Amino acid sequence: MTQKNAYRRYLRIFIPAMILYLVGVFGISWADDQGYLSKFWLLFLTLIPILAIFGWMWGQWRYVKELDEYLGRLHTEAMMIGLMIVTAIASGWGLMELMTVVPRIPIFFAGPGFYLIYGIAYIVIAKRAGVKGCGAYL
Amino acid sequence: VKNRLKVLRAERDWSQAVLGEKLDVSRQTINAIETGRYDPSLPLAFKIARLFEHAIEQIFEETEGEKNA
Q1: I need a labelling partner for A89 at 20 to 30 A (CA). Which of A1, A19, B20, B28 fits?
Q2: Contact state of B28 with A69 under an 8 Å Cβ cutoff
C-alpha cells in the first residue's frame, strides 16, 4: 500500500470519528446545561465520544502499521514523546493536587494534550528527518 | 551501517521515488537509508539485495565503530 493510500484510509476513519466526537461532547454538554438529561442518559450518552475515540485510535493504529518502517518509526517516536510528556505532567500535577492546593485540571484534557504534543513532536521530527509531503502529516 | 544504495540506484538511473515504488516503501525511506540516517530492517535489506542482485554485504557494510562495538 502506498503512503498516500494509507493516509486516505486514515482520513476516512478520522473525519467521521472526529465529527462524532465533537457532536457527542458539545451535544451532551449543551443537553446537560439545559437540564434535558437524567443521570442515566448522561452516562449512557458519554459512550458516544468514547466510541468515537476508540474508532479514531483504531484508524491511527492501522495507519501507523500501514506506513513503511521508517515513517512508522517517526510516528512511534512522536507518540512516545507525547506519552512521556502527558504522563509526566499528569502524574506530577496529580501529586500536587493530592499534596498541596493547586487548581484541579480535568482529566478530560489528557487526550487532547497527548494529541497536541504528538502532533507538534511529529512535525519537528519529520522536519528534521527531511520528510515532506503526505508522509509528513498525521 | 554504510551502504551503496545511492550508487546502485544511480547506475540504473532510478529516482528515489522509483526505487521506493519497487521496494514498496516511501521516497523518504530511501532518502533516509541513502544518507545513513536510517538502517533498514533485515527483510527490507534482503529485498534491496534481491532487487539489485547482490549479496547484502555487497550493499551494506559495518562502519569501523560498529565492528569494534
Answers
A1: A19
A2: no
The mean per-residue pLDDT over the stretch A115-123 comes to 94
Share of chain A above pLDDT 70, in %: 94
Secondary structure of chain A: what % helix, strand, coil (to 5)? 85, 0, 15
Q: Residues A135, A4: contact at Cβ < 8 Å?
A: no
Which residues of A have a CB under 8 Å from any CB of B? Answer: 3, 67-71, 73, 129-133, 135
Contact A70/B24, CB-based, under 8 Å? no
- Mutation target for A interface from B18, B26, B37, B42: give the one with most A CBs within 10 A: B26
Whether residue B41 lies within 8 A of chain A, CB to CB, comes out as yes
C-alpha cell at A125: 521530527
* Rounded distance between C-alpha atoms, residue A107 and residue B57, angstroms: 52
Beta partners for residue B54, in sequence order: none
Q: Which amino acid is at B39?
A: D
Q: What is the mean pLDDT of residues A36-60?
A: 90
**Amino acid in the structure at residue A82:** G
In this prediction, the answer to ipTM > 0.95 reads: no
From chain B, the residues in CB contact with A67 under 8 A are: 26
Asked if the model's pLDDT at residue A138 lies above 80, the reply is no
> How does A21-39 read in b/e, with b if 16+ C-beta sit within 10 Å?
beebeeebeeeeeeeeeee
